[in-house]
Every structure is written in C-alpha cells, then in structure tokens.
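Inputs:
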Amino acid sequence: MFVQDSIVDVRGLYKSYLDGTEQVRVLSDLSFSIAHGQSMALMGPSGSGKSTLINILSGIESADDGDIRLFGESAAKKDTDWWSGLRGTRIATVFQNDNLMPTLSLGDNIRLRAQLAGRTKVAVEHWLTTLGLATLGHRFPDQVSGGQRQRAAMAMAFAMLPGLLLADEPTASLDGATARQVADALFHHQHETGCPMLLSTHDPALAARCDFTLVLSSLGAQ
Amino acid sequence: MNRQVIKPTSRAWSLILAALLALAAACSEPPSTPEAGFAGLGEASPEDFRQPTAGDTITLPRDLGVHPQHRIEWWYLTANLKTADGSPLGVQWTQFRQGFKPATRNEKTPTDWAMDAAWMSHAALSFNGEHYFSERLARGGTGQAGATGQPFNVWLDDWQLRRIDGPTEQWRLTVTADDWSYDLRITSRRDIVRHGNKGFSTKSDNGQGSMYFSFVDLAIEGNVTIEDETHTVSGLGWFDREWSSQFLRADQEGWDWLALHLDSGAKVMAFRLRERDGFYQSGTWISPEGEARSLAPDQLTLEPGARRHTSAGSVPEQWQLRIPAEGLDITINVPAGEYWNHGQFPYWESPVSAEGSHTGVGYLELTGYQE
Amino acid sequence: MNLTGALLSHYRRHPWQLLALLLILIVATALWSSVWQLSQQARNSFTSNEAALEERFTVLRTDGNPVTVTDFATLRRLGFCISPQLTVERPAPEGRIIGIDALALRCFGDISRQGPSGQSGVFVDIGEAEKLAGDQWPTRLTLFASRAYADLPPAYRIASVSSGVAAGQLADSFLLNLDALCALVLLISALLVRSVFLLGLAQRELSLALLHRFGVTPGRLQFHLVVELAVLSAIGGTIGLVLGQVLASGFGQGFDQALSGLYGVRLYAQETSWLAWLAPLLVLILVMIWAVADRVLFSTLKTNHRLLVAVASTLLLIGVGSILWSESLTLQFLAIGLTLAGFGWLTALMLPELLNQLADTRAKPLTGWSWRELAVMVRQLALPLVALQFAAATVIAIHALVATFENTFYDWLDQRLQGDVYLQAPPNLDRAAATAALARLDSVRASHGVIRGEAQTPYGTMELMAVNPASSLLQAWTFLASNTQAPEEVWRAVEAGAVLVNEQLARREQLTVGDPLTFAFDGSPQSRTIAGIYADYGRPAGEILISHQLWPPEANYSSLSFSVTLVSGSLQTFRRQIEQAWNSPGLTIRDNAEIRALAVAIFDQTFALTRALSALTLALAGFALLLMALTMFGARKHYYQKLQLWGMPEHRVKHWLMRHSTLLTVTVGATALPLGVFLTWVLVARINPLAFGWSLPMAVFPMFWLFILGLCLAIGLLLARLLAPQIALRAGRHEG
C-alpha cells in the first residue's frame, strides 16, 4: 500500500552490516513516506542508521529487503544509471561538510552542479545572493568560512532545482548562530519550492521545525 | 764457497718466478702455483740438467763462462778494502744464473725473446756501519745479461766484470746503483784454488755437490762513490765460481760461509750447511805459499757465538773457527751494523775481522736466518 | 610502545608504502650499482694497463730500420732503462696481444705494486707473445725508454709517443658516459624516494604533531626519521647491490668484449672488497637523506614560487650555456645535469600554472574542473613525473645515438669490408712478389692490398696506410669532405700523389681538404696535399692514407693484408692456391661476412648494455609513477566519487579519470621530447667529438618519439585502470 502523491515511500526496509564476524542490523522493518511539501527529520544516536538510510535513498547503498518508491517509481531492479539519473537531476544531497570541489570557486561549483543536472541556464548570482554569498562567487572553498561553505553547498543543491533534498547533519559542524542561518535557508527554500526534505540531525530544535520526525533506535546486534 | 747459495738460490728463484708472474703476466692466466706457472718456460726437470760428479774437472778460461747444461751458477766477488784514510770498506758483487731448460745442440734457430734463463745481479757496499744493496734482473736469451769465459766477461745491463786486455790476469768491475757506484781494478796474484776433490765440492753426506773454484788472492784498487763522494780504495778480494744443478736438500735449512785473508798470508774458506739434525761442514786451507788442502768435516770446527738482533732476524755475530792441524783457533767478529741484502730473497753478507791465533779480514755469508 | 614503534606504526597501516620505498631503492640501486661496478672495474683495468705502459718515449734507430732485440740489449748494456713491447696484431675476435718484459720494466719504477694478480687479458710475457704470433700474425717491436735520454748513441734517437688522445683519456670519456648514466639513475631514484618518503611524511603529519605535543623534541623526531630512511636505504641498498652484482656479471661478458673491441683492454672480474660494497651503500644513504633533507631537517623553510621559477630558469640557462661554450667533457656532463635539473624543475613548476590558466579560459565548469584536477595531479606527482621525463629523455637520446652509430658504423663496415675474404700476409714476405702471386691465382677475381706502417708527422707518429687507388673495391667509399662529389675523382687525386686523412686527425689538427701535409716515411720527408677526409670510427688514432705507389718496394711495413673477391666463392680452393703460391701453410684467411658479423656483435653488445639500462630506468620511473599515483590518489578519489554522487554515471567518471592519467603521462612524454632531442644533440655534436675524436650525423627518429609517447600513453592507461577501483562509490547497488 503506497501513499499517493508521496515522493518517497519506504516499506519494510531492512539493512544489516557484517562487522567482523558479527552481523549488525541497523534498519529493521522501517516504513515511512514523504509527500510533496513535507519535511521529515531523522533522529537517533550514532550508528542508528541515519546515514545508511540517506545512502540507500540516494542509491549509494542497497537495502537487504523492503520496497522503495521514489517519485512514484519503484526502485526495484533499477540499475546504477537510473540512480545516477536521479542523483543528477532530482535528488540533491547536502552533507555535514566536504560538499564542494576545492579546485573550483563557489560560483563554479554551483555552475558545475547545474551543468551535471542538465540545467543549461543557471542563475548563479541569484542563488549566491539568496544564500548571502553575493560577493563571494569567485572565492575558493578554502577561502571562506565553514558556514559560507555549507551555504554554498545548499546553493549548489538549490541550483539544480531538485525534486527531493537529502541533508545529512548539514549543521553539525557549525556553531549555533551559523547553524541557525543555514537551517533558515533550508526551510526557506522548502517553503518556497515545496521540495520535500529529509534531514538527519542530532539537534531537537532543528527536528522540531520539520513536519514530522522519525526516530531510529540503536538496534545493535540482532 | 758453497755459497750454499744453492739454498738461497732455490728460494731466490722461486721468489723471482713469483715476481715475474706478478709483473710480466700482468694479465695472463694465473698458474696454480708459481713454479707450475713457469712450466711454459722451464719445463725441464732437474734431471735434464747435468749433475756435477766427482771426476768432473775445471778448465780455464772455459769454466769462467756460462754452463748452459747446468741449472744454476754464480760468479761471486767479495773484497775487504780500505779508503785512503784507512777506513774499512766492504764490497760484494754477485751474478746468478738459473737456466730453465738445458741447451740442446740441434735446436732450431732461437727466437728473439724466448727466456732460456733468468739472470740476477747483486751489488753491495759496507762502509761506516752502513750497508748499501742493489739488485738487477734480466731475462736470458736477449744479450742483456750473460757470461763468457774467453774473453772473461760477466754482465747484466751496465754492471760488468771483465778481463782487461794484457798479459796479466787483470779484471775491471763496474757497478752503478741509484746513489752509489764502484769501479775496481782487480789483479789476481795466485793460481786458482780448486775446492774439494779437484773442484768437486761435496755439500752433503750423501755425496751431492757442486763444481767450485776460487781466486783467493786478488789485489784490488779503484774508486767507490757514495752519494757524490768518491773514495780511492785498495785491498784484498776473493772470487768464487760455482755451478751445479741441485738445490739444497729439503732438510737443509741454510748455510754459514766464510772466507778469510789471514795476515800471515794464509787463506781459509769454511762452510757449514745446517741440517735439521746437525750440519755438514767442510773447508779449504791455503798456506801462505799457495798450497791448498781440503778440510774434511772432522778437520775443522766452526761454531756460532753471540747473536745480534736485527730488523730482519737474529744472526750469529761471533764465530769460533778451529783447524787444529794448522794451529788455527780464531774468533771472527762482525762489525757494528746490519748487513742484510734485501733483494728478492734476503740474506746476510758482512765483512768480518779475525783475532786469536791468527788475525785477518774476510767475508761472512749467512742464509736462512731472516724471519 | 616507544617512539620508534609509534613512528613505524605508519608502515603497519601502509605496508604498500614501505614496499614501494624498498622496491624503488632496490631497483634503483641494482641499476646504478651494476653500471658503476662495471665502469669501476673497467677503469681499474685501464689504469693498470696504462701503468704498465706509462712509457711515453720510444727509441728509434736513426737509420730508419725497425728496432730489434739486439738494439734492446745494446742499449740496456749501456745502462739505459729500456723496455721492449711486442705488439701482435691478431684479427678479431682474439684481438691484439701485447708482450712485455716485466724484468726490464723494473727500472721504470715500482710497478710491482700495480701488478694485478689473477686476471686474464692481453698482456703476456714477451716470449709468450712471440711464440703466439709465430708466422701467423704480424708483430711490431717497440722499445720504450723511461725518460727522454739526451745521451743515446748516435745510432738511436728518442721519439715521443703520440696517439693524439691518450688511451686513458679516451677510456675515461667512454666510462664517463657510463658514470653519467649511473648518476642519472641515482638522481632519478633520489627523486622517487623523496616523493614516496614525503608522501609518508604528509600522512604522518598528524601523528608527528601529536608526538610533538606529547613532548617529543623536534630534534628527536628528525633523528628518528633520518635513521628510519637510512635503515630503509641500507636494507633496500644491500638487496639492490646484490642484484646489481648479478646484473653486472650478466652484462660483464658483453661489456668486456665491447671494451676489448674498442680499446684493446680486457675487463677483469675483481674480487669485490667489503669497502666496494660499503661505499655505494653510504653514497645511497647520503643521497637519500639529502633528497629529503629540506623537509625533514628544515621543515620551516618556506618557498616562494616565483623565486623557484627564477632559480630553475637560471640552472637551465647555465646548463645550456655551458654545453654550448665548454670544451671539457666533465663540464659537459655537469652541464647536462644542470640542464636536466633546470628543465625538470621548470616543468614541475610551470605545468600546473599552465593547466590552471587553461581552466580559467574554459567554456564549461566540468572542463574547468578537469584542468584544475590535472594541475593538482601534476603538483602532487611532480617528482615521479620529472623522473619519468628524465628517463624518457634519456631513452630518446640513447636511442638516437645508438641508432645513428649503428647505421653509420655498418655503412662504414660495408665500405671497408669489400671483397669476400680478408687475407693477412705473413711477415717477411716479399711484398711485390706476394701481391703478384695473389693476382695470378685463377680463384681470384679481384684483390686489393693494404700496406700499413708508421709515418712521422709534425703531430707525432701516425699510422700510414697505402692502397691501390684504382682498385674497384675502393669505389664505394664515401668521404666526409672532398673537393668533389665523385669518389673516383678523389681516388684519381690519390693516384696522382695526394693523401687522405681520417676524421680524427683532421679534427685534432684542424686539417681540411687542400691543406698540405708533411710527414716522413722510410726516411724521406714528403709534403702532399690532402684530397679528402674519411670516417674512421671506433678508434682514436690518426691515420694517413696514400697510394701504394708511394710505398717503396724495399720499405718496411708493419702489416700487409688483402681484400679478395673470389671467382667461384670457394674459400677452400683459394686457401689451397694461396698457401701454395706463398709457400706459407696455415695462413689467416677470414670471411668478410664473418668479420662483419663479429664486429656487429661486439658493437651490439656495447649498446645493448646502454639500451638495457636506459630502458630499465624508464621502467623504474614508470613503475614509481604508478606506485606513487596509487598512493596519492587516496586523497583525490573523493572528488571523482563526488561527481558520481552528483549523478555522473560511473563509466563517465572513469572516462574522465583515464583522460587525466593519459594526459598526464603523455604531456610529460611530450615535454621529454625536446629534452631528448637536445640530449641527443649534446651527445652527438658535443660529447662524441670531445670523447672519441669523431662526430656522428645528427639524426632524429620521429617514429621512436611516437613509440615513447605510446609508452607514456600505455603507462597512463594502466594508471587509469589501477586507479579505477578506488573511485567506486561505497557498497553495491540497490537491488530493489
């Protein structure tokens, strides 16, 4: 049973790892869905499978069992090109850090991401301005602060005009004020575009700003 | 003398051969042993050479020249001279030959450079407690070194002993070393002395021996130059001529030889071959009138006394010689200094003086003492 | 765990890095130590041979007759220090024998100390040499004097031996080539070790900082790092030296032949002392420590890019300038080193700049990223890339030199080996009668005699060679210089009394066509015009060629030989007939094809060594680049993965990777081309005339450049293939 209109629909998802000789289960019978315009927070202690889930949803890792539908299409039996296509044009990812090509300026990073998404015309200045980076487009990642780097990463994600935004602890490495700025930008974009968002975080305040929260518990060995 | 040279020679030549191999064969295949390496040149075994035997005779001037049928031979001059101010000065000159192959009559025309023999010349000076020594080597067959009896001539490079034309037996000896030289005129005043049995000198109990004769009374005068200082010298000399084909027996360790000019006008030669257990000794007594008498082993005693410690080994510096039949009982002393001839093989060659029942001067040769 | 353990734990985490360091050390040491060992042995053998022959004065008879054993004995008995030397000219492959008299040499000084024991070679006792020569080979007796005596008897005079180039100098220059190659390999391996070690250092930066914070003084850390590198060098170096020994003995055989073919010197295998092992090991350790010294010992040294560019450019300029202006071999080699260093350094500094400029003018962000990524790669792999560049340039230069030499040499060989057989006349044969008898044989279609002897010239004693200029067998000669294009006109000039000189003599004395040449031969002085200059490779001696009519029938000669074309080609018939006609059984008759094959074999071996070493150097550089890139890529793979994360399919990312790796190696290969061509020019036009007296035509081999570029491309492709697994995104795919 899939919810209509949902962008992400997960049913009965299982995932375990082999840690040494021990099988460690991180996700067990997980089901949820996110519809257009919705945001979902993902919480839980370290090792509870937050990043694993995000990786599975972006096609970097595969699940052991369960059904996933993205944009109304089943991910079952899809090849890597299908996943590449999704990541290229519809799913934007933002990680805690290291989201930029260090050899390119902030502006060029945005342009590159847009180019890969097939957006021939990209309003780089618009996105830079939107995220408060108007004068920094020619700077290289190592020439700006961590908060500015994260905002640039979001500019890259926004510039590809995604259908789904996956953010893995996007504010974890920032101080409180900067983290708030970044979060503001994320939610502002979500409100503006209705782009559904899955956001993993340790910060309850941030989670509270989402429409709903999924808490993963540490299952340990099963 | 028996210059027991025999022994020294065997050792000397093997050293020379080794040196030859090291030098000449700068790059040729190394032999397994130095002796074997010379096989190409000296394949002949000792048996191919003529062995001297009792009954062989000595004829002059023939026997002053080379003996190609024999393996080893030497010409040996020692002289006890005095400078104008009366300082003693000793002179030695020796030329050795070792044949590699006895000459055969119908040999094809000899090649230019085939080495039929090796020649070695030694010259030494003893003066003021200093001893000077020089050595020359040459390959046989080229004319660089050689010896002839008629006219008498023994040479290696420009070192030369030769007869001066004239009615009397007069020779000239010229030697030039690095920083010293001598040029001596030598007059023989007596006929030669044939040692042993008409010249066959026995060297061991089992009858081995060599042909051996000497000019025992040579009057010598001339010039000796040492480091640019020329001394006019004169005195007495002794010249040995000896040839054989046998080296020392394996159990013979070396020898002691001496020849003395006694002030009485008598001359004496005595030698002692040191064997592993005991020794073989012999000698010749020549009366002032020139009468020579061979001394059987039991007719003389020759005993070493105190030893001198030198840089190359300890040597007896004092000897006691007794010939009871002649009333001779003398002590022989080596003057201060070291008298090693440091050539391819080292040996001791020193002038000596004698005192006791008789007085006189002479030469002492010792081999087999170096360490 | 103590400090040493803490520092070494790095290699437990990165065993490949340790292995890479050791492998580079081992292979590099094996390479340069084997060459070094060979050249040292050869140098020793040259030195000792030269020591035995250090006489520089010969004694000649004033009546012009050759000296004999009697002259030797006469002079010795006059007290002159004279030593005989009997040279026996045996044709290849046995080669020349030199007979000496060690007893006579004693007055030349203490040579006993130099008397090496236990070698095999061409020096034998003079009696032995005479016996070996027999009637079979011509001999020449030379009497050497220990000094220039002014008081010789009037029948004799002193002449100084002039070969123009001393044998030692010639040998030195040949060996200098090899030494330079060793130095280059050592330099390349230093670059490689530096790169690997610095990588390790970078990876250990955190642990080092931590240890520093725990109170370990920088001095102790430096000491530990230096000791660590020294120990690694000692281990790798020892294994490498053993391998080098094996390599050296493997090459030794061919090298020995090459040397004896070129210079008449045999290489002897010498007992290697522990010192001979320790010395290269110490050199290795020192060079390796030097290679990393600036980073380990002076880590605070900050470098300024512009200053570095200026220094590198200065090095390059000084190097090129010295090559152009210096006339000393050693300086030439030093200058090559400077040029290489300057060029390599500039490449490493400028290439990333260039790529970044390209990135700035790009149309698309992806292309821009690509150029910048490439620039980063160049910067990170600068050392192994420069090593690869050096190696490629060396291979190009060596190839051009060897190929040119081979072509020229074989042409020259063909020209000289006219006719079917080569016949050496026994000594003491009546020349005219022998020549006539040969011509009368019905098995002979054409014959051509060569008479050899010596002429006194203002430049010293030279080889004199006489031929019949009308012979059909000479018409194929080509001349380096003559007044006319047609060889037959040159030969007509020779027939009319002109002479030819070889290139060595012409170069050394700056003689050109049309110059007069005075020389004395057979007691009579002559002044003749030079009609042409001919090539004479592989030998340093000057040579004059005249018409056989100028050689008086009764004049002495040192050798007489004939090139003969046979009617039926039946060597057996010819042998029977000529041995009968000359009444000399057992003549030396050699098949020219065989001689050619032997000569070719000898030179092939000489250059096989050079080629093998340059190829191995290239392999080492390629191998090191792969190792380094594999390690370095750990820090870059992230960005290729990011492209996949942003939706670029894996095969396209791999395609980009391949483009980068191939562009990297091919670009380096391309920068090696001008360097290689320049090196070739230096070897051919500067080093060779200085070392050998003759030059080679400058040739370029574009096909070989393509081959080198192809090799670089292959290295790049292999690199991409090796790196590709690293860029895969974590874990597998979603199976649904």
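Chain C touches chain B through 44 residues (CB under 8 Å). Flag for discussion at group meeting.
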